[in-house]
Design brief:
Blueprint: H1 4-23, H2 33-45, E1 52-61, E2 68-74, E3 79-91, E4 96-98, H3 100-103, E5 104-108, E6 121-125, E7 130-136, E8 160-170, H4 174-182, H5 190-199, E9 209-210, E10 220-224, E11 230-237, E12 240-250, E13 256-265, E14 280-287, E15 292-298, E16 306-308, E17 318-325, E18 333-339, H6 340-347, E19 354-363, E20 370-382, E21 385-388
Parallel strand pairs: 15-17
Antiparallel strand pairs: 1-8, 2-7, 3-4, 3-6, 3-8, 5-7, 9-12, 10-11, 11-20, 12-19, 13-18, 13-20, 14-15, 14-19, 16-17, 20-21
Helix pairs in contact: 4-5
């Protein structure tokens, strides 16, 4: 379904939208890196004596392959906060970019483990000693937890932009240091935002984890529904997250997944089967061959449409199936039921042996729209066995 012609068609529509936004002066300007450097630098200059052990600045082109040392050599127990500004442009003409909190990852020492925050500010405690490194993520992907890459680093030549990073090693705790520094002022609310995050740290719903090589998010929350049943609420805006829960069932002729969901808003008004418009909300089932089938509500594509993921790092791994389309039914609770064996054979070929995970996927990084939905009553059944996933 997807292909070069689709990409060109979508790109043409996106170009028209970008031109219209520019004519309306509706394009959000990029962060002013000089203002960021000046504002955070002034805070460092007025910091109360004794709260900062040392700090380091790093300017990192978005085309720079990982990893780059910021010049700080950490010791176990050190607490660090970092602040990022900038953009990594996939296509500047179409105004497609990756935000810094998704783009910039860290590691301590030459072999990781790698990590990132969920915002442009993040604080952490060093568990081991070593150089503090930063690295660009998109358009590559992590092959392992030490930060090796799946693709050749030549792919970084495809992106443009710059990230500017300030890393602060505190003399004491990050919370104490941020509070003391905020007492002298703030820049764009960054200090207070990070303090708030530390006081109320975001976490995945109990029993679920975010896909490690995509990173954490603040997209999914567990909450009671209107009648008190357990629900997971999803809200995505200019970010991405995959939430996973392990299961273990054989894939048999009677294998099925059922669930209810209320989709309040779709993240895009274009067909989703091209790279620059691949924003969507879905529930997915992973199998023991490493592949997954993901069921989603499309803005434009007809029900029953199936296609391999257009993203290079996911092609051959993830398969998309449209089960609802258009705007009819948005805002209503709807029940779904899919036979997994039938769908696998129809769309993907020879079936594997077992079902291994359930996923929620929310992606809005390409067009930075807002998507919102709520899931409930997820049940897996196979060979007389039944798992109440949610």
């Amino acid at each position: 379904m997807a292909g070069t012609l689709t990409d060109l068609t979508v790109a043409a529509r996106l170009a028209g939208k970008a031109i219209a936004r520019r004519l309306r002066s509706d394009i959000e300007p990029p962060p002013n890196l000089d203002d960021f450097t000046r504002g955070m630098g002034q805070l460092l200059e007025t910091a109360p004596t004794g709260i900062i052990r040392d700090s380091a600045w790093l300017s990192m082109p978005a085309s720079q392959p990982p990893w780059v040392s910021c010049g700080l050599h950490l010791e176990p127990g050190d607490e660090i906060s970092y602040f990022i500004a900038g953009r990594a442009y996939a296509n500047k003409a179409l105004d497609i970019y990756v935000s810094p909190e998704l783009q910039v990852w860290c590691r301590i020492g030459a072999q990781g483990p790698i990590f990132r925050g969920t915002r442009t500010t993040h604080s952490f405690r060093a568990e081991t000693g070593g150089e503090l490194y930063f690295g660009n993520y998109f358009p590559n992907d992590w092959a392992d937890s030490s930060g090796n890459r799946k693709q050749d680093d030549a792919v970084y030549k495809e992106v443009s932009g710059e990230l500017r990073i300030l890393a602060i090693r505190w003399a004491g705790s990050a919370a104490e240091g941020l509070a003391a520094l905020a007492g002298t002022g703030d820049y764009a609310g960054l200090l207070m935002s990070e303090l708030q995050r530390l006081r109320h740290p975001p976490a995945a719903p109990e029993g679920w984890t975010y896909l490690w090589h995509l990173g954490p998010a603040e997209i999914f929350t567990k909450q009671p529904g209107e009648d008190g049943q357990a629900c997971i609420h999803c809200r995505t805006h200019a970010d991405v997250g995959i939430l996973q829960r392990p299961v273990d069932l054989p894939l048999a002729d009677d294998s099925e997944i059922s669930w209810r969901w209320r989709v309040d808003e779709l993240p895009i008004d274009l067909r989703e089967d091209s790279v620059p418009s691949h924003d969507y909300l879905s529930i997915a089932v992973e199998f023991d061959n490493g592949r997954d089938i993901t069921y989603y509500w499309s803005s434009q594509l007809p029900e029953g449409t199936g296609y391999d993921c257009p993203l290079p790092n996911w092609r051959g791994k993830e398969y998309h199936v449209v089960i609802r389309s258009g705007t009819g039914g948005l805002g209503e609770w709807l029940a779904e039921r899919r036979n997994l064996m039938d769908d696998y054979r129809h769309y993907m070929g020879d079936p594997p042996a077992r079902i291994t995970r359930i996923w929620f996927i929310a992606n809005s990084i390409f067009q930075r729209g807002t998507g919102e939905c709520t899931y409930a009553d997820i049940v897996l059944q196979s060979g007389g066995q039944k798992i109440q996933v949610l």
